[in-house]
Amino acid sequence: MATKRILLNAFVMNCPGNQSPGLWTHPNDRSDHYKNIDHWIELAKTLEAARFDGVFFADVLGPYDVYQNSRDAGLRQAVQSPINDPLLIIPAMAAVTKQLGFGVTASVTHEHPYIFARRMSTLDHLTQGRIGWNIVTSYLKSASKNIGAQQLAHDERYDVAAEFLNVCYKLWEGSWEDDAVVKDRKNKVFVDPAKVHDIKHEGTYFNVPGAHLSEPSPQRTPVIYQAGLSPKGIQFSAQNAEGIYISAPTISIAKKYVERIRSKSQNFGRKRDEIKIFSLFTPIVGQTDAEAQAKYNAYKEHLSYEGALSLFSGWTGIDLSIYDLDDHLDYIQNDAMRSRLEIFTTVDPNKKWTIKEIAEFVGIGGIGPVVAGTPEKIADQMETWINEAGVDGFNIAYVVMPETFTDFATYVVPVLQERGLVRKDVKQQTHRHNLFGTDHLPVHHPGKQYDQKNQSVK
Amino acid sequence: MATKRILLNAFVMNCPGNQSPGLWTHPNDRSDHYKNIDHWIELAKTLEAARFDGVFFADVLGPYDVYQNSRDAGLRQAVQSPINDPLLIIPAMAAVTKQLGFGVTASVTHEHPYIFARRMSTLDHLTQGRIGWNIVTSYLKSASKNIGAQQLAHDERYDVAAEFLNVCYKLWEGSWEDDAVVKDRKNKVFVDPAKVHDIKHEGTYFNVPGAHLSEPSPQRTPVIYQAGLSPKGIQFSAQNAEGIYISAPTISIAKKYVERIRSKSQNFGRKRDEIKIFSLFTPIVGQTDAEAQAKYNAYKEHLSYEGALSLFSGWTGIDLSIYDLDDHLDYIQNDAMRSRLEIFTTVDPNKKWTIKEIAEFVGIGGIGPVVAGTPEKIADQMETWINEAGVDGFNIAYVVMPETFTDFATYVVPVLQERGLVRKDVKQQTHRHNLFGTDHLPVHHPGKQYDQKNQSVK
Questions:
Q1: Per the count of CB atoms within 10 A, which of A124, A164, B41, B392 is most buried?
Q2: ipTM of model
Q3: pLDDT in tens, B351-390
Q4: Measured between beta carbons, which residues in chain A are less than 8 angstroms from residue B35?
Q5: Do B76 and A189 count as a contact with CB atoms less than 8 A apart?
Q6: What is the C-alpha separation between A374 and A364, in angstroms, rounded?
Q7: Cα A84 from chain centre
Q8: Which residues of chain B are within 8 Å of residue A63 when distances are taken between CB atoms?
Q9: Phi, psi for residue B58 in degrees, rounded to 5
Q10: Distance (Å, rounded) from C-alpha A243 to C-alpha A41?
Q11: In the beta sheet, which residues pair with residue A34?
Q12: H or E stretch including B319?
């Protein structure tokens, strides 16, 4: 077939709402059940039954407080708040699935890599090799002030991140040999000490002389995800990431991102299509296009303008409350802001966007396409994105939880399967194996330089 | 009845083996299944069916490397190694239980309290209020050098711990009012911002100006556990702990500990019996005493001397490898060591302990009593401990996992229930409610001083 297999990823957070502020008021929305482990167990079953490849947990560690220079709007509208730790949900979801992968956001600046590496190894063990790590290098300012960390300059953040990652790579790849765990009951040897190596890391930010606490997990290094597209961010991604989440409102913008990622990664000696790119996508399904459109309009009734602007102000760092909802983009004099908002003029150069329209665009599914239509129309659109933008799959945002996912699972997935675009089977395998056909990092990946098989340290 | 209800706690770690080094070689031992989430889910079902009140996860963050000045023996014998993160197991165990509590060890010196407080709130939400926190203030030296932390002086560690705990108390008790989460769909208010308070903490070790990330969890503050009995440690426990785990080989030693804890806690204006004290206890069950004794002897065949001495050397900080197995305690000239080992002479003043006997004592169940006998004999012993030492319950260590727990559950628990000493029912309730009949900290507890109902900050 002309179109390659489409990778499906569900985009969630451990909070009420995610990319659709105000939709928690919709009568069908259950996103406020986030505190209940059964809510997540049910979602895991839904996603695995629909042959999703993964679920991605975003995370933030501070309130959205740029809009009106206050966190109040964010609290009122549950803008990614209140928010709980995403890692703790995953083992319970893993216990009821076999193939679903788990991409989890964790920052490199609030925890020591020696401790963090064990946390991820534990997850990789408990999920039987289905963990991915979305590396985050920055915070909202509202987070960093509570962690007592001065906000590092953007470039230095990437230096810390790079060293943090190297420590993790050394612990995951370079500390325990494959056959270190012997479990020889007869000779009473659980681990052969000669096959466990100190990593002897002495760096600018971290010193870790010892060995990893955990035995090798199925994937060793979790599947590395990234979301950043800043110059330093993309450098980092192009070198390390195995999967990248992008937010692009149109095919042409996505195509530009894809091109940038793929050519940069080639600079690091990687294959052009080695990174799996997931594009944000929000499906709204109806039996007819009209029915889907009506559903979309009904959703929009629940959208919160102050919520959407609080979210978008947090992302851009610019307080949009100083404008009226009917103000046009043209009114905005601030250059940094204009450049951040340029994305909207790209979507439709003939359109004069108002603040209200921006809120409506961002407030349903974030900065990605919303496709309201029949299952066939949605499947068509997805195929077009795959073929024209060159993405590998989609990061599916919900409007109403879990309705968006159950609708998509019930109506769209069978169409995609019928077309041979989505797998029909479920296999017990690691996340990396599902994506790349191999359990471990490829030999040319930076993490592999620490593989003990290429080392003589002890 | 004369005897009070006995609280039952299971003592585990996220590693092969725990307090019985070498027993991983026993054909029935499944402790090496620790990497499998189903292993823990099954254990949770066993414990809840046997009406255990809780399960306690110990943890270490470094290898045992005092013995022979090397980690090798510890690796060979799986002495609490390899070891994974305990927190991540808990939600999956909570999903299949209603009343089982989870005491989890976490140190105050490797993570920021702003991040840690969210982690614990998340666990308290996901378990529906069944989380307890065993506060650890120290590490093995082998851990601290990998975290780049200089080992703080013992007393200063408690100062850091006290401030860490205060930040957590402020976030848990003082940040979100009970009715802050409104979820008013009609007026589109999820959270009332006026009822969320900045904690404005400025301290010696931490600055946390903002509010808690999580909404109030069922217990707010997790049930506070401690295990330390050093002078500063007991000061800390007597003030903060709601439950204390002790390791005492005999009733008279346990009684001394209990007396010390209860009188110290009264100094802080707490009720004499306000702290629940759990004593280490290892039951080995047989249909006859002879059968139980034979089982014990068979277990002992699998004990690892180098494993037991590696464990005990790590606990005491003294390398016991310089002695022969047949050396008597009398040979030991080192004062610090003699004082740490005095516990053995207290067990039996007429006995001349050899290093080998110490290894055999420590190596089956740690520094607590091992009772091998019929279910009735074990129940009798437990009653005696409750009545004479004044403990509230037991922290049950396993020799073989899960055999020790399934044997105890199958044969001893029914006897205890028959005597009215162990509950028969299971109720969905918080861990604190199960222990104390109330979901939240009592008003005179130090954590309650930050309760927003007594505050006017914003």
A1: A124
A2: 0.96
A3: 888 999 989 999 998 989 999 999 999 999 999 999 999 9
A4: 125-126, 215, 217
A5: yes
A6: 18
A7: 16
A8: 210-211, 213
A9: -80, 170
A10: 24
A11: none
A12: none
